[in-house]
Each structure stands twice: as C-alpha cells, then as structure tokens.
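User: Some background: our group keeps a shared notebook of sequences we're curious about, and every so often someone picks one and asks for a predicted structure to add to the entry. Today it's my turn. The entry only has the sequence so far, pasted here. Could you supply the structure so I can complete it?
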Amino acid sequence: MSRIAYRYAKSLLDLCIERNEVDAVSKDMAYLHEVMKESRDFSLLLQSPVVKGDMKLKIMDKIFAGQIHNTTSKFIHLMTEKGRESYLKEISGSFIQQVRAHRNEVLAEVITAVPMSEDTRKAVREAAKALTTKTIDLTEKVNPELIGGFVVRVGDQQIDTSIASQIKRLKREFSENEYIPEL
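Assistant: Of course. Here's the predicted structure to add to the notebook entry:
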C-alpha cells in the first residue's frame, strides 16, 4: 500500500468520524473497491492519461449516481481534480482496512470445498474468536479445488486443513525421499 493511499484514506476516515458518517462511507468505499476489482475497463479508465479528468468525473457520476453518499462523491471529485483518481482502488482498500482497525475488527476468511452449513459457520466463528480478541468479520469463499477440508485466515494467521494442501505436502515429501532399492 502506498503512502498516498494510506494518507488519503486516513484523512477521509478522520472526516467521517468527525461527521459520524463512517458506516455510510465505508459501504461506499467497499462498493467502489469491488467495482474496480471486478471491472478491468473501469480501472483502466481511471488510470488512463488520455481520458481527461472532467470526462472521468462525468462517467463516474453516471455510474454512481444516487448510489453513494455525498461525502464519498465529493471525495471522488477531489481525487479526480487533483489527478489522483488512479489511486482510488488503493485508497478504498486502505480505507476499508483502517475502518476495521478503528472498529477493532479483524477479517476472517474461510475457504471451503463446499458451502458451509450454519452449524459449521458457528463452529468456525468460535474457532476464529479463539485466535484473536478482536471482533470477527467473517467472509466465506468456496473453492472446489480444495477437495475437502478448509482454510481459515484470521489477520496474518492461517490454518490449512485442506486435502489439496495435504496432497501437495505428500508429493513434496516423496520427491525429497532418497530411497534407493537394493538390487
């Protein structure tokens, strides 16, 4: 994360705390981040030096019209006017992280081979709580390549019980085995 992204996100968060708009702007920044992550064309538009800032603003106003808070809209306008619109993805990501830190939350990501049941979800949430004293923000992903088991990431800690990783570990052990049969 760049210093620019961190500083702009910190300034926006301070403003939101002062105005009591953290929840609204946080949702907007998460939405903006998701749009930029999902739409390569939109990201390329913001990074393009050929497209002028006023045209970028018109496009963003049409995309986000009525969907984002006034403070978020003004922030996007400010970034574009300053020529910093190419940093919006980084800024939105940094803002999301700083809001989590402000709320004393930590992201817990669970990746499973199949969708989890409600009982499994509760058990995972309890196990994640044992790893940290912070509030857990649980996200779930399904990856059939895991074959079975799960991967849990809480902050910078990871627990991997997937069958796919066990198979990789066995392959590595067998490739390192220097057994030579006697003839």
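Suggested note for the entry: The longest helix spans residues 3-19. DSSP finds eight helices and four strands in the chain.
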